[in-house]
What does this fold into?
Amino acid sequence: MQQPNNMEIPTVSIQEAAPLPGNGKFHVRLVEGFYQNLRRATSWPMLAMFFGFVWLKIDGQPAVMFDFEAHRIFLFGLELSWYDLPILAGIMISGASLLFFMAVGWGRVWCGFACPQSIWTWLFIRIEDFVEGRAAKRSKAEDKKLQGFTLLRRILKHILWVVLSLATAITFSGYFIPIEQLINDLLSFDASLFSLSWIIVMALLTYANAGLVREKVCLHMCPYSRFQGVMFDNKTRTVSYDKSRGEPRSHKRGALDNAGDCIDCHICVQVCPTGIDIRDGLQAACIDCGACIDACDNVMLKLGKETGLIEFYSEEQLNVSISTSMNTATEAKYNLCSVPFTSEATKSSANDLSEKNSTPSFMSFRLFSYLAIFIITLASVFYGLQNKTELIIEIAKERGSLYQVEGSEVCNNYQIELEAFSKNLTRLNVHITHETPSIPLRLIGPKEVNLTEQNNTYIYRVCAPKKYVSSRSEIEFSFTQQQFYASKKSTFLGPK
Ligand code: SF4
Ligand code: SF4
It folds into this structure.
């Protein structure tokens, strides 16, 4: 690999996944272990949040909801307007920088442990495993004719998949349409065509992505896997096979004098949800789910060997491991000849390895830059939330009439539309001031407005003594309620 100079980001070469054998269809073998438990620890709370938050209410308002009809976003007690979209953009930027932070530090752990595509795929695989049996049994059934119990089990599996897809689609829709209303409409066969189409499309997407297409989404559709090569560097820890320890692999004990620890059992391949062999090196299809680590650790434990043949290693760590094993081999050769030998290189490499293992590989400038961006954007989001829009004021001058002269006064007409984004704003007092405070203005229209009413559009007429009025000046409408204050400027026109 080309050595980067100081101006370049040291990228890591990632291979395209090798084509899958046969017709590309494979059955994922389930495995237990540390990383599977870790995934449960992340995915179950996320699933609980997804299916639970849609029903949660805070002060009678949905906890999380994007209400396009009412132009409102409800976020854990906050009511945001479309004017607050920069806050949402800030949330997305902070999410993206957190994703990049994780990618630089630990590769595609987001994909393996938290991506909805992976979580739903594992759910579908669990259902498949429960109904149709283990992967080996399912593979054998592929060659047989579908009949009897095999056929019934296949039908039951698809029914359960459809039920889960529909539950997912209805829940997802509940973040845009009030869930109680949606369920009532569905049960009374009164749902709108739009709601029904939306639910069917979402259910089909869930069913196809998690049930049928699965790893092909990660392989061919996910843009994240395409640009991960520039996110990784030689300090990034990704799921890797320690070639220096595993090779040469041999499934027959004693067949090779210098056999490595890999017994070529292929279990790491059978458990892989994307069907790749991690022993071929870092591949774009690897989602860093850790299933192969758990599988190989189980094999190593059965063989009475140290675990970690496959682990989250950085390229830096693996290089040190290779150089250490080479020096250890040289040392062993000299020791066989009864010549006490400990090379300086071996010592330094061994020190390096222990140092690399003890020093977290995320100690890099790039990693901390992403962390800094994440913290800054998150702080900006909190600042934005503290200062979010509580009242939207739209002022429009009457069309077709610039001003009217009435005796000694000049008058302008305005239409004011108010939209409150805080439950506390109910009754507002309305005031008017001229840019020259000494010019007296007369406000004709409601001096107090009730925002709890359906229609919050008001007509006002503002008049000023003709002798003070210029052809164009500025006036300001202000709205107050106890500590609350908001205002908006408009123009006041008069004769030249
Ligand atoms: S599970 Fe471990 S021992 Fe078995 S083939 Fe994979 S790397 Fe080798
Ligand atoms: S190679 Fe290992 S970590 Fe990567 S996707 Fe397959 S099982 Fe998961």
The longest strand covers residues 409-420. The chain has three domains: 34-231, 238-363, 391-493. Residues 241, 246, 262-268, 279, 295-296, 299, 309-310 surround iron/sulfur cluster (ligand 1) (CB under 6 Å). Residues 238-363 form one domain.
